[in-house]
Amino acid sequence: MRKKGQQDAQQRKMAMPYVTSEMASIMRYVEREVKDPTLAQSLHFSPTALALVRRVMMSGGRVITDTTLAQHDVSAAMSRTLGIEVQCFIDDPQVVNLAMHKRITRAEIALDHALMQSGMKLLVVGSAPMAIDRLLKRKQAGPINDVVVLATPSGFASVVQLKERLWESDIPCIVARGRKGGTAAAVALVNALMAESIKEQGL
């Protein structure tokens, strides 16, 4: 009973203060795709996240994923309809070589590379928590502009803490809070955001 009470208290702590109709639509899409209502309910949207996602979708911006698997699973048909580019730098030779030289993960160097890209960017982190750590360090060093982050890596204490640090920062983000997540959740969320934008624009 005590464990159940602790879980209920944690869920109340993490409950969204409000859910708009747009958020609810996105969460329903994710739930259908991943077939996990608790994961969909764990999605939290920072105040400006959806407005910035809208700018990415309406300005021909970039969706930059942390894995080629996520890049390939994002709907090509919807990205073409919106005129946005889906990229991944994890296997870029420059990223690979620099990571070896600096002896840090490719995810961290790929994050740096992503931040250098021009225009509005949706950064998708589905399985590389070190990319979140790198982003937070970059934020401490100076402002980060034209970026909204989607963070859904799964894992235990350290990953949960990284997601919480991102959520508590002033970086615009959508975060799957708690232990659940993964690449499939990230892809479902990107597809949900694109579907919502296509509907909104009447494309």
Explain what you see.
The protein is globular and about 45 Å long. It has a six-stranded mixed β-sheet, sandwiched between helices. Helix 2 crosses helix 11 and helix 8 crosses helix 9. The chain is of the alpha/beta class and 203 residues long. 41% of the residues are buried. It has eleven helices and six strands.
How many E strands? 6
Radius of gyration: 16 Å
How many separate helices?
11
Q: Give the overall average pLDDT.
A: 92
What sequence of helices (H) and strands (E) makes up the elements?
Answer: HHHEHEHHEHHEHEHEH
What is the straight-line distance between the termini? 51 Å
Largest sheet: 6 strands, mixed
Strand content: 5-15%
Shape by Cα distribution: globular
Helicity, in percent?
55-70%
| Poorly predicted ranges | 1-9
Structural class: alpha/beta
Main sheet: strand order: 1-6-5-4-2-3
Describe the SSE topology.
Elements (H helix, E strand, L loop, with lengths): L1 H13 L6 H14 L2 H5 L1 E3 L3 H10 L3 E4 L2 H6 L2 H7 L2 E4 L4 H10 L3 H10 L5 E5 L3 H13 L5 E5 L5 H12 L4 E4 L6 H19 L2
Parallel strand pairs: 2-3, 2-4, 4-5, 5-6
Antiparallel strand pairs: 1-6
Helix pairs in contact: 2-11, 4-11, 6-11, 7-8, 8-9, 9-10
Features:
alpha/beta; 6-stranded mixed sheet; 59% helix; disordered N terminus
Q: Short summary of the structure?
A:
The protein is built from 11 helices and 6 strands. By secondary structure, the protein is an alpha/beta fold. The termini are far apart.
